[in-house]
Amino acid sequence: MRLDGRTLSLADVNAVARDGRRVAIDVRALRRIARAQVWVGRMMSSRRQAVYGVNTGFGVFSEVRLDSSQAEQLSRNLLLSHAVGVVEPLSQEVVRAAMLVRANALCVGHSGVRPVVVETLVAMLNRGVIPFLPSQGSLGSSGDLAPLAHLALTFTRHPHEGEDDSGQAWYGGELLSGREAMHRAGLTRIVLGAKEGLALTNGASVTAGMAALTVADALRVLEASVVGLALTAEALLGARGAFDARLHRARRHEGQMRIATMVTQLLRGSGWLDLTGRVQDAYSIRCAPQVLGAALEAVEHVSDIVAREINAATDNPLLFDGEAVSGGNFHGANLGLSQDYLGIAVAHIAGISERRAFRLLSGVPGDDLPPMLTRTAQDAGLNSGLMMLQYTAASLVLENQTLAHPDSVHSLPTSAGQEDFNANATTAARHARQITHNAAVVVAAELIIACQALDLHRVQRGALAMGAGTRKVYSLVRAKVPFVEKDQRLDGMLSQVARGVLAGEFSVPIPDAG
What we know:
This protein is mainly alpha-helical and 514 residues long. The chain folds into two domains: 2-202, Fumarase C, Chain B, domain 1, CATH 1.10.275.10; 210-503, Fumarase C, Chain A, domain 2. It is built from 18 helices and nine strands. It has helices spanning 10-19, 27-45, 71-82, 92-107, 115-127, 145-155, 178-184, 196-201, 205-235, 245-249, 254-266, 283-286, 288-309, 333-361, 387-403, 425-461, 468-480, 491-503, and strands at 2-3, 24-25, 86-89, 130-131, 134-136, 168-171, 174-177, 318-320, 323-325. It has a three-stranded antiparallel β-sheet with strand order 4-6-7. Strands 1-2 form a two-stranded parallel ribbon. Strands 3-5 form a two-stranded antiparallel sheet. Helix 9 (205-235) packs across helix 11 (254-266) and helix 11 (254-266) crosses helix 13 (288-309). The mean pLDDT is 94.
């Protein structure tokens, strides 16, 4: 794929970050990059014009004028002083996503870096040099300053003192110094020039890259949860009327209509519905199109915001026709708000899924299922059945309820008040990612429990036809998790199905609007 600063898609980010797709730079983007770099050179030669981060200090020091001879040292000092991230590293796929997004932002052509800066980032992606980026320490406002400084230290060197061991990166499965990782990959570390340190660190590219991956994961979790809903509707001998298209058209919400249509398609031909004469089911089934439809609209809204962000010029100042314009495109408000929204939506997906799992295990009269889905009622007591799957799901739902409290409403000033309203976007993105991975486990638990319930029904009622879609997913689950005859370890099975949820193995595409 070719980076041009304009057409990077969420699918592209996932393909590069997770599947290792190779990257090239569009020749037109290289021309734009080189043109803006010429403008920086002219600004450096002007003694009259103060340009933030080019011939001034940063943040509270923006009024301090610097000589052009100090440009390289200024960029180096920025990286050294800002690389203050802490705690465990971000996953390698998140780092690759961040590198791709940062490179694409520079390809827009308003940043003033040399082409070699972007070419080096792309070469690192293609050759598997993955910087070590601590996961905490970014506010997502003046960009992801701390993690991006760690990233830039990996492939840059001191302008006067030569090579050093600053930065760390994985290469070939080993965590090495930046110098050694680049050397083994056959890449040359570069000395940054005027504005280049600022251009590499300004912009919430780590947050945006993480968000791009999380949006993809959230959609897969949602798709699998709709499948889980259909399986559970069969396992609880549910009422088909809750998915009637006329009902949902009357509410007028596209997401709700699309979820109901998907459930109807999955259940087409099923003989397990409307067997009890029950007029209506519990909310977790009857109202699931309403809940999951709202979540679908949230995920798609967030997807649109992130898609714009990964094609944005986000550093400061930006260069237009030789003029430097100072502003705040680095501020992560859009990402912070959207990641909070995504986390809340996915918390709902997990929450309603856990309620269905609870119902399946509870032995409610009329559902005709033994408590905890033991093989027979006589086994209960000696065997605990699938009881603990719901415990784990409940624990993760409770954790999600805490994580889903919005981060973007919280702000503390930094840089002596110069940066007085911060986005807290990176924390919002980290929490949305954790919520989504927790939700994958919850949905996996429902899939396993629903399949166990359907097998127990077959013993009592015979092999009634399953829906055209649910039958296929049932077979996929059973390929990983056999019927549980007696108590055994379930953690490995649960993790395996959860990985399948995130990989899209249980996804059925949700119909498009209209």
